[in-house]
Amino acid sequence: MELKETLKDIGLTEEESKIYLELLKLGESLASKIAKETKINRSHVYQILERLISKGFVSYVIKENRKYFIAIEPSKILEIIREKEHKIKSILPSLLQLTNTSKNKPRVEILEGTPGIKTILNDILKMKKEWFGFGSSGKGPETLPYYSEHWEKQRIKNKIKLKGILDNSKDGRQRGKELSKLSYTQIKYMQKEYSSPTSTWIYGDRIVFIIWNKDSSFAIRIIDSDLAENYKQHFEDLWKIATS
After folding, report:
1. How many helices and strands (H and E) does the chain possess?
2. Are 114 and 8 in contact (CB under 8 A)?
3. What's the angle, vertex CA 144, arms to CA 139 and CA 149, rounded to 5?
């Protein structure tokens, strides 16, 4: 599952990931063999293989008028990612010129699904600012079971401090106990009646409200320095009355 999740993160669909991983195990194979092993309709397998070829994850050879498909070596995936990164960097100045950046107006963004939540988490790693969080009690591991553990390791590696307020419930205490074992982490608790179904995160000049749902989570991110400072002060007021 973790392999498929990571492949999805770099742009493959679930079926593309399934076929690529199966091809790694099978080696050079006909489409009929791939269809049999993956239990995906043969005509659909051809369509998926064509997409994988266009993305650079699969190649083929023709022997006796039959097409045999081959998965690229996993190490070459990094080359594909670097090539994409190079292309994005080449157009970044033009993209920035198109951006309407009004300094007097907060920027509001809606980020949908687990990819949206991952965008927020990656932004925290990128900014390397102290992270403040309160509201619902640690829903991240339920929604992103494989990604969260890896992300926490990266946070610790980057020495990003977390101050979190969880609700004083059985689940909140359990999640707080897990988090408190981590470096650069402080956890306190509020009475359960003050809890919220929404998580509020503050880091740098950003405030994020996350509505957690295993199938359809989404986040609202507001980028504004003054508003972020106000929310940090609100968090510090809560921190003073929260208990250890």
Report:
1. 10, 9
2. no
3. 95
Residue 60: inside a domain: yes
Q: Which of 149, 150, 146, 186 is nearest to 166 (CA)?
A: 186
* Distance in angstroms (rounded) separating the CA atoms of residues 158 and 203: 14
Is pTM, for the whole model, over 0.85?
Answer: no
- Residue in the block written with tokens 């990819």: 115
Instruction: Specify whether 131 is located in the same domain as 229.
Output: yes
Same domain membership, residue 225 and residue 111: yes
Least confident stretch, 81-85, 107-111, 128-132: 81-85
pLDDT for position 9: 81
Q: Are the beta carbons of 201 and 162 closer than 8 angstroms?
A: no
**Angstrom distance (rounded) from CA 168 to CA 126:** 31
And the tokens for 141? 């591991």
